[in-house]
Specification:
Elements: E1 3-9, H1 13-29, E2 33-39, H2 45-55, E3 60-68, H3 74-91, E4 96-103, H4 106-113, H5 120-139
Parallel strand pairs: 1-2, 1-3, 3-4
Helix pairs in contact: 1-4, 1-5, 2-3
Length: 140
Amino acid sequence: MAKFLIVEARFYDHLNDMLIEGATDALKAAGHEHEIITVPGALEIPGAISMAIDANQYDGFVAIGVVIRGETYHFEIVAGESARGIMALSMDGAAVGNGIITTENEEQALARADKTRKNKGGEAAQAAIAMYELGLKFSA
């Protein structure tokens, strides 16, 4: 059994709740433990995961958040830079599943967050588990 940290950027409560439900269901189904922490926004997720890696208390991480396009360029920055930060952590060997959904509107976000539809929270947890297991294979 491994221990995973879910790091969520809580902005859209109802969407985050759906993503977290999908992620926690996937982790429980695989027999793993988890904790959840909340950060101010999607840009803070990679930093929080980096701090958690330094604490050496978790085997893997699931990033959860929702970024919906608005009227300004801010969407591009948040979507791109949060993904870049998570990719950098992955390239350094962290087992991270990226469940930060980026959409044009709330309906697209609902479709991706709902575990009976696209279940992106569950997919992110499954990706984190897969990377954790791959890390075990390479460290053996």
